[in-house]
Target: DUF4198 domain-containing protein
Amino acid sequence: MEKISAYAKSRRGNSLSNTPKFKHMKKLLFSILSFFIILSASAHAVFIETSLQGTKGKSHTVKVVYGEPDEHELISKWWWYKEDMQVTLTLIKPDGSTSSLTTTAQGNHLLATFIPDQDGAYHVSLKRDTERKAGAKTQYQINAIATIQVGNTTLGHTSAHLANELFVFADQTVFKNKKEVSLTLFQKGKPAPNAAVQIIAPSGWIKWLETDAQGVIKFIPEWKGKYYAEVSRKEKIEGQAFEEYSRASSMSFAVN
Model:
């Protein structure tokens, strides 16, 4: 009641609004509101959508979409889209060799395919700087990865194969419902501590988790299905025409 009364007095012109304590509260409230505005603004992301299980010798489809999972926006509305644009994905095979996958526009997504010729973990990654307007102080970068398991071997399942500056990596190859999931956030090849990662469950459940000193987040899934992890980070840059990089990254994994 004391806080309510103080607020009511300030509304009547009480000098409390000029006190250091009140100014601190206003600053704190502004910071909290700004934080939630930032979270709301980062709701959309670029995702690689694909079946996380593949079959050796059988064509495998990979989609690149923009928006919320399963709520895609037309690619003509992508803020980084240009007419006849093609996005190149990097395919990393279990033996560490790489090849390029060129996407084609398919209405509300970009499409690429490949045929697995080995057993093990295949990583598909996207890394792309967006078009930066002249004079803009921020360079935006999109990162996305997906890991497709072919056969039962864990060959090729390593974060060292990924060259993205920012990505979330699944240290496990199999995820079970009601069993703890461990994910690691990497930035420039090193685990990134004290960073916020958003987890989106198939039910629509969303939770923000903070990485520990080793860049790890852990949680227990409550539903089976495909989960997404999203993260964004900023980095100050010197010697460039812009002042900072703003990187965003997403990945998906299946819980059985």
User: Anything to note?
Assistant: The chain has two domains: 2-38, 42-255. Residues 1-17, 26-43 have pLDDT under 50 and may be disordered. The two ends are 50 Å apart (CA to CA).
